[in-house]
Design a protein that fits this description.
- This protein has 201 residues and is α+β, with helices and mostly antiparallel strands.
- It folds into two domains: 112 residues, no CATH class; 71 residues, no CATH class.
- It has five helices and 13 strands.
- The strands form four sheets. The protein has a four-stranded antiparallel β-sheet with strand order 2-1-8-7. A four-stranded antiparallel β-sheet has the order 3-4-5-6. Strands 10-11-12 form a three-stranded antiparallel β-sheet, covered by helices on one side.
- β7 and β8 form a beta hairpin.
- It is globular, with a radius of gyration of 18 Å.
Length: 201
């Protein structure tokens, strides 16, 4: 088992501040963990039943609490991003300290934009959304610019407040393109082509 500490990050729904803390892999495997905000208004909890981890995540985006299930491999190695069921945005990150800290900076920017712009505009950031849609149009114009892993080449687009979903017309597979921050646009501009993960099962 890897002994590298696992770092958890989420936004406190009570005070709005990012909560970042680490736990070593042995502790996570041997017992449950609790990661509290210093304001006392939120606690992330993990429960291990011997086979899987259940994670209870306070959500700084919608104010609720979400529950996720992870395998030991997901929990103790690599990186995991857990999404808010209401907004569709990632609200909790598990991984190396550097990875989680970078993601939490982006999440803090996203949450601040939500607070400032709630109910005022159709999109979280109109300029970023316009640029993302323009970039997607350019990618789609290239030969095989947008395809699906199932082999399909027909797709449709679903525009959300802070993201764009590309949906395969054949298998229903979905690829979410975040469209809320400058980093989202920069990440998309790095891609000459996009591949939608095919739906399995």
């Amino acid at each position: 088992m890897s002994e590298e500490p696992r770092t958890f990050g989420y936004l406190c729904p009570a005070c709005g501040k990012p909560v970042v803390a680490s736990r070593d892999a042995f502790t996570l495997a041997a017992s449950d963990a609790a990661i509290s905000c210093e304001c006392g208004g939120a606690v992330l909890r993990t429960y291990y039943d011997g086979e899987r981890y259940q994670i209870s995540v306070p959500c700084g985006l919608c104010g609720g609490t979400h529950t996720a299930v992870c395998t030991p491999g997901q929990m103790l190695r690599g990186a995991v991003a857990l999404a808010c069921a209401k907004t569709g945005q990632f609200s909790c990150f598990i991984g190396s300290a550097g990875t989680v800290e970078r993601q939490m900076k982006e999440l803090s920017i996203l949450a601040e934009k939500e607070r400032q712009d709630a109910g005022e505009t159709a999109f979280l950031d109109n300029v970023i959304m316009y640029e993302v849609l323009s970039e997607l149009k350019d990618i789609a114009a290239r030969p095989d610019g947008i395809t699906c892993r199932c082999g399909g080449r027909s797709w449709k687009m679903q525009v959300r407040r802070s993201a764009v979903d590309l949906i395969c017309a054949e298998c229903g597979g979905r690829l979410r393109i975040p469209a809320a921050t400058d980093r989202d646009l920069d990440d998309l501009c790095c891609h000459m082509k996009l591949v939608i993960p095919g739906r399995t099962g």
